[in-house]
Amino acid sequence: MGQPYSQDLRDRVIEAVAQEGMSRRAAAQRFGISESSAIKWLQRYVQTGGRTAMTMGGAHHVVLSPHRSFIAEALAGKPDLTLAALRRRLAEKRGVKTDTSVLSRFLRREGLSFKKDAGRPRAGPARHKPSPCPVAEPAKPCRSEPAGVHRW
Questions:
Q1: Does residue 98 form part of some domain?
Q2: Tally of domains in the chain
Q3: Which of 58, 64, 96, 148 is the one with CA 20 to 30 A from 107?
Q4: CB-based contact 100:134 (threshold 8 Å)
């Protein structure tokens, strides 16, 4: 995201139009800014008297925060629940319409991670078999994390 123009530039554009009688488009060309910026700055100046930049961005309201406990219970009941199934369950039980990408970002932000089954072999380089677990310790799994565990 870009930065707002400097306050000095805003003041010079507004002064050129207000005091020198220059058109907004001519002032934009003179100071090397877009015509729409000059027009919007002058509209705001005329309507409110404000010369400063409006705030950019800000905190976004998280739709899923009130439903955190419901999501946690759903995942505790069925740890391998897919995002699409969780989305449908939220729509049916709570009336919350959301997208799987929103759910994914929410779960990531809340620190929830899903650890895959340690017993399943992972994909490796072509024509290369992964090294087996040490023979001296046959009961110990290759992965250090337990299989299928969600964490909050």
A1: yes
A2: 2
A3: 58
A4: no
Q: For 20-45, how does the pLDDT look when each residue is reduced to its tens digit (9 = 90+)?
A: 999 999 999 999 999 999 999 999 99
Tell me the per-residue pLDDT of 38-69, one tens digit each, with 9 for 90 and over: 999 999 999 999 999 888 877 666 788 889 88
Closest to 28 (Cα-Cα) out of 43, 46, 45, 41? 41
Sign of CA dihedral 67, 70, 74, 79: positive
Distances (CA, A) of 125 to 49, 119, 143: 65, 19, 18
Helix ranges (DSSP H) in 2-151: 7-18, 24-31, 35-48, 68-77, 83-94, 100-109
- Total Cβ atoms within 10 A of residue 16: 20
For 91, the domain range is: 65-114
- The 3-state secondary structure of 71-104 reads HHHHHHHCCCCCHHHHHHHHHHHHCCCCCHHHHH
pTM over 0.85: no
Q: Apex CA 18: angle with CA 17 and CA 23, to 5°?
A: 25
Q: How many angstroms separate the CA atoms of 97 and 100, rounded?
A: 10
Whether residue 24 lies inside any domain: the answer is yes
